[in-house]
Amino acid sequence: MANFKGHALPGTFFFLFGFWWSMKYPLRHRWKKRQHGTRQSLPVFFNRIDLIEGSLKIFFAFVGIMAEQFVPDGPHAHLLNDEGWVKLMNWQHSTMYLFFGISGIADVLSVSSLSVPVGLDRLALSLALFIEGFLFYFHVHNRPALDQHIHSLLLVAVFGGAASTMLEAFLRDNNLLEVFRSSLAILQGTWFYQIGIVLYPLNGKEWNQEDHGNIMFITMCYCWHYAVALLIVGVNYSSVWWFTNRYGGKQRTDLEISLRKTNQSDSISQKALLQESDEE
Amino acid sequence: MANFKGHALPGTFFFLFGFWWSMKYPLRHRWKKRQHGTRQSLPVFFNRIDLIEGSLKIFFAFVGIMAEQFVPDGPHAHLLNDEGWVKLMNWQHSTMYLFFGISGIADVLSVSSLSVPVGLDRLALSLALFIEGFLFYFHVHNRPALDQHIHSLLLVAVFGGAASTMLEAFLRDNNLLEVFRSSLAILQGTWFYQIGIVLYPLNGKEWNQEDHGNIMFITMCYCWHYAVALLIVGVNYSSVWWFTNRYGGKQRTDLEISLRKTNQSDSISQKALLQESDEE
Amino acid sequence: MANFKGHALPGTFFFLFGFWWSMKYPLRHRWKKRQHGTRQSLPVFFNRIDLIEGSLKIFFAFVGIMAEQFVPDGPHAHLLNDEGWVKLMNWQHSTMYLFFGISGIADVLSVSSLSVPVGLDRLALSLALFIEGFLFYFHVHNRPALDQHIHSLLLVAVFGGAASTMLEAFLRDNNLLEVFRSSLAILQGTWFYQIGIVLYPLNGKEWNQEDHGNIMFITMCYCWHYAVALLIVGVNYSSVWWFTNRYGGKQRTDLEISLRKTNQSDSISQKALLQESDEE
Amino acid sequence: MANFKGHALPGTFFFLFGFWWSMKYPLRHRWKKRQHGTRQSLPVFFNRIDLIEGSLKIFFAFVGIMAEQFVPDGPHAHLLNDEGWVKLMNWQHSTMYLFFGISGIADVLSVSSLSVPVGLDRLALSLALFIEGFLFYFHVHNRPALDQHIHSLLLVAVFGGAASTMLEAFLRDNNLLEVFRSSLAILQGTWFYQIGIVLYPLNGKEWNQEDHGNIMFITMCYCWHYAVALLIVGVNYSSVWWFTNRYGGKQRTDLEISLRKTNQSDSISQKALLQESDEE
């Protein structure tokens, strides 16, 4: 899939997941603060969302593997023929999808009623990102300087995401890490597009692969992509906040009124609430 | 031991230990949840198992050192002769076994009644893995490209295992880390076999050591090995879960009945139990 | 800005921020210990200081970006002309300032009444430092040995600061980490001056860029800079301590007297106080 | 000090400190368990020991700096003369001693009644080790292969010690980390001797600097040194344990008797004690 589309496709997926996460996690965080409770107080609604997310990951991974294998110029599930290895690139991409599929299975298991270790979903996602980076690392060998550099930059987002997601397996429900992961996923998504645009320019004008200026620009451009990713995450976070305040506000007021009524008797829970709003 | 057998032997050990761990830790975890207690509530049975495991490690390490030294073409405990160093490879393997033996001693001490620092067993295992990786790292110098690459890939599992086991020294009894370690041990085991097969092919047909396609395939193959390792760990985990539910089920039901009886008086312990099942 | 002034300017900023932090954090720490309370007991005064600090960061970042763009030999907001990329160095510096500006925005949001994730301010500062190091890393390619070495040394302070600030996002209000960050900021500040002095000597006598002795001296000199930074931080810490004891002392004595009075009734809070002073 | 003595001297210091720590920390740990209390229950005795230790570090660092400067072939506090830099090696060693001196000052401040941040002593020691490794890293450039390798191996102990000591700044009073640090200090000590023996052989027979066998042996030899370091730490730990049980035993029995007497009334503290002995 060495063309623009081949980079736009995974880019779209990473972008959409990052965008979706940057709304899901703040929303869940708000909900939990409202209920000032533990994980158990999350409505079935959120569990169902995680289930759908996991299922989608499995589905897309499966479709991705099939597509890589059975596109007209794919290996059609042949690994070795008389001339040697068959279409190793497609096999490598299939392997990457496989691990994202495993991550999807871990997501589904984690929200099911089965007894899996706490944090399995994040560990599996971290492994999927690590495997992606691991394969990309050896992928870019023996290529022109710019091609190699632009793929190496991707690894910063990939390994950064793997490390931060690994941390999430131990620091559960840390809103900051979840938002950070969202931003790195968006970065990956937009950077895949950038790679496609640079290596397979739409206007047909090839970039000079050895020009030092190009490499310097691309490095800086990567930072701009991240600034945009942070902006998107920030806007989504604020929207969720504004939205929950606007349409969830009535509920809060009711709560406050009822608290005022029970002012004398129930001072402990009020303190807990105050502490909560101070933490905000 | 530069032959197929020389790689199959350590591979078998790592595989067996990984396989065994992937059953022991979930079983112990289940047991502890049942007893909803602390470490003290673990039966003597589990302590005895750890004792046997440690003793086996010491025994195998000792046998390994002896074998490396006194095989017909071994150094027979001579380090230096008139021509220089004698069979440094065998000495290096002996050194690796030595540290796994030390790890076995730490295991035995940790379950004994002596007062050793908490986490000593995991630190010692982490050190043994680090020393293994450390010696392998300088081991593979000056070899053909494929040979070097296939050994370097091993280091990912070795150093990954060292890091994750080091973490276990501080995050005690973290089920996720224990399962992760099991999977990395299985990966090491099967990869030792793969190294043996590639470098000393059973059908006698040598692999091209410099072909880039071979290196790309081997990198991907490594990921497949890990996918298989995850599958094995997952199947063992599920089996333990199913088995303990099937044959340990009666006990649970009894517990639930007795809880229902004491419904009014003993609401606190019930809450603890509920919380527990929610965590599952 | 490849001249002495171009290095002195950022150096001054880093030095001033480090110097300021090395007074602010001990002061805040002292205050909190006095009130032996949680974060909520901090007076509005400290929040206002953080707000001003954040606003200054935004302001200086904006001024910095404008200056880099519209100095006489700047790119004047042109990125590409007929000859290729325009003044990429200035664009890179603008990008660095941009992320420090984002860090300023995060500071302001964190002290506002809005609900941002806990630790956002530190994560944003960590990212700003990471981006600075990231751009510098590719910045110094293809330069003479001494130039490259002296910039690489800067990266130790930059990435060290990024890592330690990232840690602060999770270990909130850890006085040791805050002091450590102050010392690294001062180191960066003075080292920028050193770079300016070495590469653009005021007396006009150029340093030999390839002399191994120069490189050895510069490495050692870097350690001396850090020793001085530690000294400055230590002096500031002691001054704050002495100052708060001297002028905040009356308050303490009053407290002690009132405690002695309530000796019989209020033994618990006294214990808490004792524990506190033991910790000192 | 490029001779055997110049390596034996720092080696002796590191060995002695490691040996001393491997007795001090287990002893303190035992004491604290006995008193089943917090840090405050440590007798003044231990504070005094830390004070002496810190003072010794300052004294030796001062002596070391003076010696490096004013040995007959030293720089005599001249940094620059007409021919260029003067004796940079001696200046580098002085710099290393300086930071160990700073670590000594931090030790003294930490046990004094002044209010320094918790963990400052460990952070300062970690920095001293980091600076040592940092200077060594650029120290070994442009040397023969064996010389470079044998010094690089030292860095594993140095940076390992820096990382583990940094961890101690946050995981206070972790017995495992303290024992680990002791073992790494002993390793450094004995390895300095090994470097001296290899580079300046006592029997005058030079080692072949380029022989791959020598490099392989040295790598393995390093692991043996660590095995010996672990043995020393283990023997010291056991000795302290045996000694405190033998001569501190009477006290324990008294405690147990008095507990039995207060069996009915004081069940909570007994539970705490039981929990404690189970943890052992």
TrEMBL record, chains A, B, C, D:
Bilayer-spanning residue ranges: 6-23, 44-67, 96-116, 123-140, 152-171, 183-203, 215-243
Keywords: Membrane, Transmembrane, Transmembrane helix
Membrane protein topology class: Multi-pass membrane protein
Entries under Pfam families matching the protein: DUF716
Keyword Transmembrane helix: yes
Compartmental location: Membrane
GO cellular component: membrane
Source organism, top-level taxon: Eukaryota
Family named by the database record: Belongs to the TMEM45 family.
Record-given protein name: Transmembrane protein 45B
Provenance organism: Silurus meridionalis (Southern catfish)
